[in-house]
C-alpha cells in the first residue's frame, strides 16, 4: 500500500471512531440540549505584501562573506557609486550616500539630478565613511566597494549587513544588479534594466565596424594607468572597438582589476586612434591628465592627439559607476565619438 493511501485509510478509521463516540454521547445524554461552548475568535496575522511572498535569501558577496536576509531590503545606504547605479535601475532611492564621487554620480542628470542633493549625507571620506552617520540612517543594507570598505563590516555589526562588490566585467555588474533585485523584491526591474543594457550592447556590436583602436586611461597626474581588456570598462570597449590592451605581467595588476601603469613611450607602440581620459583630482586646481601630458613631446606624436581624438570623460560615471546604467552611458558616449555617422 502506498504512503498516500495508508494516510487516507487511517484518516477514515479515525473519522469513523469519532462519529461513533459522538453517537454514544448523544444517546447517553438525551434531553441535554445545552448550547455548544463558544469558540474563541483568532484574528489572522497579516504580513505586508512584500514579506508575504518573500523567502529567506542567502547570498555571498565578493569577499566570500555569507549573508542571510529574512525580509525584503527597503532602506539602502550607499558608500560606493555602484550602489547608486543599481538602486536607480531598480526604481529605488538611497536613504543616505557618501560624499565625493558617490554624490557626484547621484546628482548627474542620468541619475537623480538635483534631487540627489537632498539625499542625506554620510560624512567622512570615501575610504573611511562615518559609522555614526550610517547608524543614524538605520539602513537595512549598506553597499560598499570590495578592497576599500572591508573594515566597515566590524563597525556595522548589529546595525546592518554590509555587501561588498567590485565587478571586473559587465556580466559581473549584471549579476550584482540581479542579486540586489532579489534582496529588494525588485526582480522584474532588475531584469528590465539588464535587458536594456544588453540590447544596447548587442545593437552596438552589430553596427560598430570596430576599425578604431580605442584606449581608456585614468589617473590624477602624468603617472597614468591603462584600463585593459580585462578591466570593467575594457570588457565593454573591446566589444565595440579594436582594444588590444592587456595585463602582460600579473604583478602589474596585483588586485586583478584589469588596469596597469603605463608610459607614453609604451603607448606610442600601439598608437591608439581614440583616447578616453578619466581624470581624478585630489586637490583644487588640478589640471586634467590630458593637459598635464601635453607638456611631453611624446604626447604630440600620438595619432589620437594629432587628430584631436583625446576626450576627457566623466570619470564618476565611466570609472566609478560600475553598474549597467553607467556602462550604458559609456557605450552611448564612446560610440558617438568613434562612429558619429553610425550612432
TrEMBL record:
<feature type="domain" description="Fe/B12 periplasmic-binding">
    <location>
        <begin position="75"/>
        <end position="342"/>
    </location>
</feature>
<dbReference type="Pfam" id="PF01497">
    <property type="entry name" value="Peripla_BP_2"/>
</dbReference>
<dbReference type="InterPro" id="IPR051313">
    <property type="entry name" value="Bact_iron-sidero_bind"/>
</dbReference>
<feature type="signal peptide">
    <location>
        <begin position="1"/>
        <end position="20"/>
    </location>
</feature>
<comment type="similarity">
    <text>Belongs to the bacterial solute-binding protein 8 family.</text>
</comment>
<protein>
    <submittedName>
        <fullName>Iron complex transport system substrate-binding protein</fullName>
    </submittedName>
</protein>
<keyword id="KW-0732">Signal</keyword>
<dbReference type="InterPro" id="IPR002491">
    <property type="entry name" value="ABC_transptr_periplasmic_BD"/>
</dbReference>
<keyword id="KW-0813">Transport</keyword>
Amino acid at each position: 500500500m502506498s504512503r498516500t493511501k495508508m494516510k487516507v485509510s487511517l484518516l477514515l478509521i479515525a473519522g469513523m471512531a469519532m462519529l461513533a463516540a459522538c453517537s454514544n454521547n448523544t444517546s447517553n445524554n438525551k434531553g441535554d440540549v445545552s448550547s455548544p461552548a463558544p469558540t474563541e475568535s483568532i484574528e489572522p496575522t497579516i504580513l505586508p505584501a512584500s514579506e508575504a511572498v518573500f523567502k529567506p535569501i542567502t547570498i555571498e558577496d565578493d569577499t566570500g562573506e555569507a549573508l542571510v536576509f529574512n525580509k525584503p531590503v527597503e532602506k539602502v545606504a550607499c558608500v560606493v557609486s555602484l550602489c547608486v547605479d543599481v538602486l536607480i535601475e531598480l526604481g529605488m532611492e538611497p536613504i543616505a550616500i557618501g560624499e565625493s564621487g558617490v554624490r557626484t554620480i547621484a546628482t548627474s542628470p542620468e541619475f537623480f539630478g538635483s534631487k540627489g542633493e537632498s539625499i542625506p549625507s554620510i560624512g567622512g571620506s570615501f575610504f573611511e565613511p562615518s559609522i555614526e552617520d550610517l547608524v543614524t540612517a538605520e539602513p537595512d543594507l549598506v553597499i560598499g566597494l570590495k578592497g576599500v570598505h572591508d573594515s566597515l563590516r566590524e563597525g556595522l555589526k548589529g546595525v546592518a549587513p554590509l555587501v561588498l562588490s567590485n565587478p571586473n566585467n559587465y556580466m559581473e555588474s549584471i549579476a550584482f544588479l540581479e542579486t540586489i533585485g532579489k534582496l529588494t523584491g525588485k526582480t522584474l526591474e532588475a531584469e528590465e534594466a539588464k535587458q536594456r543594457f544588453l540590447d544596447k550592447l548587442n545593437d552596438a556590436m552589430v553596427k560598430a565596424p570596430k576599425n578604431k583602436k580605442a584606449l581608456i586611461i585614468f589617473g590624477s597626474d602624468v603617472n597614468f594607468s591603462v584600463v585593459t581588456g580585462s578591466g570593467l570598462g575594457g570588457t565593454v570597449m573591446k566589444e565595440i572597438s579594436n582594444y588590444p590592451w592587456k595585463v602582460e605581467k600579473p604583478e602589474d595588476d596585483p588586485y586583478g582589476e584589469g588596469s596597469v601603469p603605463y608610459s607614453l613611450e609604451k603607448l606610442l607602440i600601439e598608437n591608439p586612434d581614440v583616447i578616453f581620459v578619466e581624470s581624478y583630482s585630489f586637490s583644487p586646481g588640478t589640471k586634467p591628465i590630458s593637459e598635464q601630458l601635453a607638456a611631453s613631446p611624446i604626447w604630440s606624436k600620438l595619432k589620437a592627439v594629432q587628430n584631436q581624438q583625446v576626450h576627457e570623460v566623466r570619470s564618476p560615471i565611466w570609472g566609478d559607476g560600475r553598474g549597467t546604467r553607467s556602462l550604458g552611458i559609456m557605450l552611448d558616449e564612446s560610440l558617438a565619438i568613434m562612429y558619429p555617422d553610425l550612432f
